[in-house]
Amino acid sequence: MLAPSLQPSERRVAEAIAADVEAAIERTAQEVARVVGVGRASVVRTAQSLDYEGYPQLRVALAREVALNSSTADDEVDGSMLGMLRGAVDRFAGRLSHTVSALTEENLQDFVRVLDESERVLVAANGLSAPLGLDLAMRLCLWAARWSTCPTRSRSRSPPAGSAPVRPAWSSRARERAGRRSR
How far is Cα 69 from Cα 135, in angstroms, rounded to an integer? Predict the structure, then answer.
C-alpha cells in the first residue's frame, strides 16, 4: 500500500483518481488539481510517487487498465488465446465510435483540403505519440511515392537534388504535376 508514503495532498489526488478513473483519464493534470483543490505540481508528484514519469503516463496506464479490464462475455466463455484476441478486437472496435465522435463532415473535408493543398507536411511526434507520428509520416511518404520522390534525411537538412515535396496520393494537384513531368 502506497498511501502511507504519499503526502496528504498526493493522497487526496490518488483517492480522487481511484474514485473516478474514467474522469481521470479524460482530465489534464491542471483539471485534476482544480477538482481536488491542490496545485498542478501535486498531481505530477503523485504520478511520480506512483512510479510514472508524469501525469500523462499515468493517464495512459489508467486507460490501458480500463481497456484490459472491460472484458466481454466471449472472453469468459472461451478462455483460448484466439478468444481473448477476438474480445480485445471487439472492445477496440466498440471504442472507435467514441474516438471519431468529435469529427464533423466539414472538419474532415477542411483537413483533407488543407492537406491536399500543402506543399510539405511536417509530422512532429514525441514520447508516447512517436510511433503514431512515424507511422503517419511513413504512410504519407508511401502515398506520395506515386507522384513524387519522398525526401530522405540529409546532413544539410535540405531535400536531395531532384526530389519534390511530399504530397498525398489523393492530391489532384500532385497528379496534374506528375502528368506534366512525364510528358
Answer: 28
Q: Please, are residues 50 and 11 in contact by the beta-carbon 8 Å criterion?
A: no
Sequence-separated contacts (24+) of 60-68 with Cβ below 8 Å = 60/128, 62/17, 62/21, 62/24, 62/25, 63/25, 65/21, 66/21, 66/22, 66/25, 67/91, 67/92, 67/95
Q: What is the pTM of this model?
A: 0.45
Distance of CA 4 to the CA centre of its chain: 34
Q: Look up cell 519522398; give the residue.
A: 150
Per-residue pLDDT of the chain (183 residues; tens, 9 = 90+): 556 688 999 999 999 999 999 999 999 999 999 999 999 999 999 999 999 999 999 998 898 888 777 654 444 557 788 888 888 788 778 777 777 778 889 998 998 888 888 878 888 888 778 888 888 888 888 877 655 544 444 444 444 444 444 444 445 555 565 555 555
List the beta strands (DSSP E) in the chain: none
